[in-house]
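Schema walk-through. Below, the input block comes first and the output block second. Nothing else is stored per chain. Lengths vary across the set, and this one has 162 residues.
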Amino acid sequence: MKFEERHSFEQSAETVMKMYSDRKFFDRKYKDVNAIECELLEEKKTDARCMVKYRLVMKSDAPLPEVAKKILGDTVKMVQQDSWDIAKRTGRIDIEIKGAPIKMFADMKLIEENGKAVNVQSWTITCGIPLVGGKIEAAISEDVKAKSKRDLAASRKIVLDY
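--- output ---
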């Protein structure tokens, strides 16, 4: 399943890129979106690139079909890696859901429209379970969209400090 999310800001792309390339942003954001657990696993930063990887436990935000509930449960245990090429303002989110045959990633492009930043996220979700994979992909996409709204609200508050 493929879909697009757009995170729009009042600030410039340069300002938002400063936020996205700061590990402290992720610590604050995960706290603000009520992550049940949040642990930094890895961080790399140079002038050109940055990457953070977290182990997260989040409450599911979308109604899941019974088969998905059996696989995922009421909470989602995952490892999320966010990577950015700072100069090009391109990035990628990779999410590994623990114990589930699901692949999730989003290619990102931070663009500027009329002096304001927009993070365009092109999501891909695949589930390798025969017969019900499509239903699980659809349910997970709704969960991502719900979390995306909370993520954007938290990010809009945090960016004011940059």
